[in-house]
Amino acid sequence: MQRSKNDIWVGLFVLIGVVAILFLALQSANLLSLSFQNTYQVKAKFDNVGGVKPKAAVRSAGVVVGRVDKIVFDDQTFQAEVTLALETRYVFPKDSSLKILTSGLLGEQYLGIEAGADENNLGPGDTISSTQSAVVLENLISQFLFSKAADSSSLDVNK
Q1: In terms of pTM, does the model score above 0.85?
Q2: CB neighbours (10 Å) of residue 36?
């Protein structure tokens, strides 16, 4: 009887440990966000969203103020339409701007919102028009190489 009672306690302890590890793994991969705050949805359009995914953080001054709800492709404007779920306790002026930023050198991408100066605040269903797309490293490298090639060809012509 004593042995089966110990087996039950050990099994329960192992089960709690597995659930805790699963919770931490999902939380660190940004696949689970436990927020019980009310939110309102705001939309924005980007030419390139890079590696931003749904559930990515929306930060202002380093503080998470919301999450990316969904990302869809608009085949009329050929842009990515991003829907944000901002917490209702945070309000931003209508002329606020969004940037796609990266945590560290090669970290995860998130949206950074900078507050504007308008007297009216964003509300549910509003659209943020001032956006800055993600910086694509391959494009920067190709522009650099192209400019170096153009510089070297202009030096050959001048000789």
Answers
A1: no
A2: 4
